[in-house]
Amino acid sequence: MTGSSTTADQHLALASVVASGLPASLGTDAAERFYDVPAVFNRRPNPQEIAALEGSGSHHSLERVGYRDVTLAVHDRRLIIGNTNLGQLERGLATAIANLVQEISTDALLAMRQSRADAQTAQDAQIARAQNITRAAERIHFTPDTSDDAAGGAPDSLAERRSEAP
Questions:
Q1: Per-residue pLDDT tens for 8-53?
Q2: Measured torsion, CA atoms of residues 74, 77, 83, 89, in degrees rounded to the nearest 10
Q3: CA torsion sign, 70 to 82 to 48 to 41?
């Protein structure tokens, strides 16, 4: 497959039907009316996208537009569209699935971006906290006070402190 490379930050989409994955009997008298049609994604779907595509919400979405028997299963970079045929896909099923994939991908991308933003906010807060602690620690100086009045009546030497001990 040729073309530009894609990343997980791009919308998931279906590129084409994998003709080599269609039943060998297609176009003959022995061909089944309904079969599995493999379609290739433009990138590998993430776990959230896979769960949504294979979930009941997708099935209900297809059922609402008249494809109650069609199933969807993800295998690696392929979507296996079950219990359908090329005719159904041409007459509208492909568009219904493309819309579904677009919606699922948009939701997944938004969730991923929000998760990244939340992680960045938490990391920024952690860095700011660490910087504040470092600045506070740097303000601490262990410097003896050399003025005579600074002790305020406290013993000046360790020996004097010991002799005053009860």
A1: 579 999 999 999 999 999 989 989 999 999 999 999 999 999 999 9
A2: 130
A3: negative
Cα–Cα distance measured from residue 93 to residue 62, given in angstroms and rounded to the nearest whole number: 8
- Going from the C-alpha of 89 to that of each of 8, 100, 154, 159, the distances in angstroms are 26, 14, 92, 96
Q: Which helix (H) or strand (E) holds 154?
A: none
Cα 122 to Cα 67, 76, 114, 126, distances in angstroms: 44, 33, 12, 6
Question: In which order are the strands placed within the sheet that holds 14-17?
Answer: 14-17, 35-41, 78-84, 71-75
**Sequence-separated (6 or more) residues with CB below 8 Å from residue 108:** 12, 46, 48, 49, 52
The pLDDT of residue 55: 96
- Which pLDDT score is estimated for 163? 57
Percentage above 90 pLDDT, the chain:
67
